[in-house]
User: Which sequence fits this backbone?
């Protein structure tokens, strides 16, 4: 039976959303490989929007709103399950050392205290904070290290026992009737025409009306999001029974260390911040670093027995803010990238996304956490793509031509939208390659002259430093150009799948963390270099399951194009004539059929030899062109690249303008009526 909502992930975010949706009447399924492996179990449970001193205003508001939800949220969970979540409004103390610049230091804090009185508000923090001088802070929390000269007290910050919370969420989900599918590996998200049509798992395909990606540090393996794992090691010690009273009753938030006391006499110490991918296990240096910092902050902790060591993976984004809200797929919602604040943000994330999914109600705050913020800062910046156009009112040049100026000019009927592939937007409709150039410099100049935003790169040739590909990775500015790894040289589907995976890793190494594009080539024929339709379809089906945006290079076969689109490919790329031949458009009839029927972009690839042929392909209605040999093998490659750019734009404008109808007879250009006769 199909669920209303299927949630991928088993952490606190996933469970909180599932429970909120279920309470509002939705039928919910949660799929998780291992609920115990989620970052929830590796956290410390600090609820610290004040002590964290979050500089981003929207993030500060999100965290504060969530903190204020916590008392009622945990109370309701405890009523459902009879499990104590360990919510404790204990406040957080942030001590400051003599040699530390955190906070404003003693001198500045004293000055602020004298100006405003005891209570102050820290910069970039909406939570009230109090400065405690050295004598006061040591009285307020005995046992602090002698180097502590003062500190900030955040009375509204709190904590929760993250493991108890996870148990309560799991129990509540079960009691409410959320369907839990644990021990199942999600292998891919099946997409067709900007819709998720199923989730491929180790036990088969699961279907729902709506999907939520809440897979934490593993999200990027399923969808092209800039989320990476950041490892954190932690440990706990136990206050011996012979110590009559708890020596610590509030969280200590120090310099690169935090110490979190629990009412059951455990003390949690964390956490390292390690950009090592999904490398598991505790390490001696990690634990040693934590212990040294903890002992400096609260020396008596060195006498308590170590109880447990563990590690986990935080889901981090480039700006360390979560990704929340809609996605390129109309029925997929994203809830990931919470980094250090997943526990804190669970209640507000659940509420906002339930409003969005069930009521189509978008909180204005969600705009600040939309996935598109990464695209607008990267290689999708508009580039020079349009030629000079003169009208009676103004001159539109390659420097200033855009849609808004079209609307204000005599060309206002030419409405167009940018090229969109797999949810990513590009202004240029010309893609180029990197092979066959006389030199790296020639290639660099040609890419610039072409105005392209997508450049295809042969993964195998780069990895092997094949002639003409030495230093290619460093030759282009990958912050401005979107890499399209291709599987050139692969003769079987299995080879292509393996090389595609390498290409995704290569893109990540060059800073494109969210790049899941691959130009799929399966070519067993060494003479004519014609693609294998069966192998291409087989490879495409598997790569789509693995979350790739697949751009398949194919013969101009309308039926194959349809099957590839149905399999979830992001584009289809029919050849105009054999690759590298320069024969021009030899398959126009079939390409025209593909264009008329495709619901994904159609990119004419291979065989174009001259700008006139490029313009012709665009006039037919192609969405984009991929041209390499015609540019690289020209006598003046940069000049030809510029010519191809102009031709691509001219062809697109001609297509939008609509050509005159063909007639079998002549029609005079000047009318015969109204003429002067003798």
Assistant:
């Amino acid at each position: 039976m199909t669920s209303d909502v299927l949630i991928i992930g088993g952490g606190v975010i996933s469970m909180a959303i599932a429970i909120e949706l279920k309470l509002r009447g939705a039928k919910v399924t949660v799929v998780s490989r291992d609920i115990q492996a989620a970052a929830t179990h590796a956290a410390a449970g600090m609820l610290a929007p004040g002590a964290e001193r979050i500089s981003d205003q929207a993030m500060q508001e999100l965290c504060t709103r969530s903190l204020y939800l916590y008392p009622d949220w945990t109370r309701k969970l405890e009523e459902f399950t009879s499990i104590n979540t360990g919510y404790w409004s204990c406040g957080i103390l942030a001590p400051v050392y003599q040699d530390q610049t955190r906070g404003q230091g003693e001198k500045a804090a004293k000055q602020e205290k004298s100006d405003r009185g005891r209570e102050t508000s820290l910069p970039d923090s909406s939570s009230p904070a109090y400065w405690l001088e050295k004598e006061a802070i040591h009285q307020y929390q005995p046992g602090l290290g002698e180097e502590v000269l003062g500190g900030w007290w955040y009375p509204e910050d709190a904590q929760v026992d993250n493991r108890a919370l996870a148990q309560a969420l799991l129990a509540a989900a079960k009691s409410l009737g959320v369907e839990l599918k644990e021990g199942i590996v999600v292998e891919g998200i099946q997409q067709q025409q900007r819709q998720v049509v199923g989730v491929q798992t180790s036990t088969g395909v699961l279907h729902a009306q709506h999907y939520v990606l809440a897979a934490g540090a593993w999200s990027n393996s399923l969808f092209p999001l800039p989320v990476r794992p950041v490892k954190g090691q932690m440990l706990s010690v136990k206050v011996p029974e012979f110590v009559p009273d708890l020596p610590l009753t509030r969280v200590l938030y120090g310099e690169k260390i935090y110490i979190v006391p629990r009412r059951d006499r455990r003390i949690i110490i964390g956490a390292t911040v390690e950009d090592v991918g999904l490398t598991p296990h505790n390490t001696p240096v990690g634990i040693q670093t934590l212990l040294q910092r903890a002992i400096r902050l609260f020396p008596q902790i060195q006498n308590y027995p170590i109880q447990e060591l563990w590690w986990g993976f935080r889901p981090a984004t480039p700006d360390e803010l979560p990704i929340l809200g809609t996605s390129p797929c109309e029925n997929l919602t994203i809830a990931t990238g919470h980094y250090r604040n997943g526990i804190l943000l669970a209640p507000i994330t659940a509420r906002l996304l339930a409003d969005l999914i069930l009521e189509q109600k978008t909180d204005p705050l969600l705009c600040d956490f939309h996935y598109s913020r990464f695209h607008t800062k990267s290689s999708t910046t508009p580039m020079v793509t349009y030629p000079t156009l003169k009208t009676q009112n103004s001159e539109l040049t390659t420097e200033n031509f855009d849609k808004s100026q079209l609307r204000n000019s005599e060309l206002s009927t030419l409405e167009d939208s940018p090229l969109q592939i797999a949810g990513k937007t590009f202004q240029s409709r010309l893609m180029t390659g990197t092979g066959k150039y006389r030199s790296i410099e020639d290639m660099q100049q040609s890419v610039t002259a072409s105005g392209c935003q997508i450049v295809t790169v042969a993964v195998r040739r780069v990895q092997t430093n094949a002639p003409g590909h030495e230093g290619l990775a460093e030759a282009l500015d990958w912050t401005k150009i979107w890499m399209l790894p291709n599987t050139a040289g692969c003769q079987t589907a299995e080879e292509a799948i393996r090389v595609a995976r390498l290409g995704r890793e290569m893109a990540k190494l060059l800073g494109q963390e969210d790049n899941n594009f691959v130009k799929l080539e399966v070519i067993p024929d060494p003479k004519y270099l014609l693609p294998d339709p069966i192998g291409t379809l087989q490879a495409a089906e598997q790569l789509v399951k693995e979350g790739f945006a697949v751009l398949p290079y194919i013969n101009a076969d309308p039926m194959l194009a349809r099957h590839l689109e149905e399999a979830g490919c992001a584009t289809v790329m029919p050849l105009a004539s054999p690759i590298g031949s320069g024969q021009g458009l030899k398959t126009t009839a079939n390409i025209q059929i593909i264009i008329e029927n495709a619901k994904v972009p159609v990119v004419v690839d291979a065989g174009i030899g001259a700008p006139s042929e490029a313009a012709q392909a665009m006039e037919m209605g192609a969405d984009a062109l991929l041209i390499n040999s015609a540019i690289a093998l020209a006598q003046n490659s940069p000049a030809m690249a510029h010519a191809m750019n102009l031709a691509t734009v001219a062809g697109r404008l001609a297509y939008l303008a609509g050509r005159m109808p063909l007639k079998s007879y002549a029609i005079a250009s000047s009318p015969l009526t109204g003429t002067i006769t003798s």
